[in-house]
Specification:
eight-stranded parallel barrel, single chain
């Protein structure tokens, strides 16, 4: 019987176990360069016993930044700043993918370079507010991407992937969920286009497919992955009937052959999970839905044993327990995650959670 503690071959990359550290926004890339700090190397190296670490989201272009103090991977300075992080993880025996996250309409001009505004498939503002240096401001109406803008965005993902590999990452995960740019193309309430990039599901998945194709061409399909979150209402997304859309997406992905598909499981939708699991021919990473008030924990380990997933992604529990694989194997004890440290400024809770002796 396969367990979460068994190794796995990820498109030629050996992982020590099937426990992944999920990407978690940290908002600690201070300063105009949007670069990770020295503490980031300590933070990720502490968690290198994960079979795979997936980094916090890195914007692939200046206009793709939707949160303050998040790092990028689109400048030489940012690329160089990530090298100490990847070196530290590798020195500790770990593997790390960079997550590329273009937030699309989720953002505000006040946090972008002068003259820049958020972009999206359609000029529809999200309900909610962006946290900026001037406080919380309503999301702005985004600029609709024209054909040239779409092509430029796809090229930005590919270049950011090249930068990630130059920075020493083992691969890249493209963020296609959580209401960000790719998800905005997939969802019918945010994509009102009538051209070849919108309308029917086959057209709405086109942007996601072309981004994955471009990144795979840039760094190799074996070093390319995609994260999706079907029917996730986060950031004002509505996908009342996701089945057709995501089946079409997976059919296209199978022909590309990415390293893995990372599913953020919808609440009360295990049937959709199993359908996508069966349909996808590659490695299946699952961030499983859990009951309200509980984070992914040891209760989810049987999902590897019964074949629901190949790899399990743990989020908050990894934040609080840097040596999580060891604790999961021992049945605990577990430090309690402090969610106040997720997004705020300052270092407390970033690197100082205790490990087992």
């Amino acid at each position: 019987m396969t367990t979460a503690f068994d190794p796995i071959d990820l498109s030629g990359l050996r992982l020590a176990n099937r426990i992944a550290m999920a990407p978690m926004t940290r908002s600690r890339a201070y300063g105009p360069g949007a670069t990770p700090s020295g503490a980031a190397a300590t933070y990720y190296a502490q968690r290198a016993s994960a079979g795979l670490i997936i980094s916090e989201g890195c914007h692939p272009s200046a206009v793709g930044q939707g949160y303050i103090n998040t790092p990028g991977l689109h400048t030489e300075e940012q690329t160089a700043a990530w090298r100490p992080v990847t070196d530290a993880v590798h020195a500790a025996g770990g593997r790390i993918f960079a997550q590329l996250t273009h937030t699309g309409r989720i953002g505000h001009p006040r946090m972008l370079p002068d003259g820049f505004v958020p972009v999206a498939p359609s000029p529809i503002a999200a309900r909610g507010q962006a946290l900026t240096t001037e406080g919380r401001l309503d999301f702005a109406v985004p600029e609709e991407l024209d054909e040239a803008g779409i092509r430029a965005a796809i090229a930005d993902y590919a270049q950011a992937a090249r930068n990630a590999m130059a920075a020493g990452f083992d691969g890249v995960e493209i963020h296609g969920g959580n209401g960000y740019l790719i998800h905005q193309f997939l969802a019918p309430n945010t994509n009102h286009r009538t051209d070849a990039w919108g309308g029917e599901p086959e057209a709405r998945v086109r942007f996601a497919v072309e981004v994955v194709t471009a990144v795979a061409a840039a760094v190799g399909a074996a070093r390319t992955a995609l994260r999706i979150s079907p029917a996730n209402p986060f950031n004002d997304i509505a996908e009342p009937e996701p089945w057709t859309t995501y089946r079409s997406l997976l059919d296209a992905l199978n022909s590309i052959g990415p390293a893995y598909l990372h599913l953020v499981e919808p609440v009360d939708a295990r049937d959709l999970t199993l359908d996508l699991r069966k349909r996808f021919t590659g490695t299946f990473v699952l961030n499983p839905a859990t009951p309200a008030g509980r984070t992914t924990g040891p209760e989810e380990l049987p999902l590897i044993e019964d074949g629901t997933a190949d790899i399990l992604a743990f989020g908050a529990l990894f934040l609080a327990n840097p040596d999580l694989p060891r604790r999961l194997a021992a049945g605990g004890p577990f430090n309690t995650p402090d969610r106040t440290t997720f997004y705020g400024g300052g270092e407390p809770g970033y690197t100082d959670y205790p490990t087992l002796p």
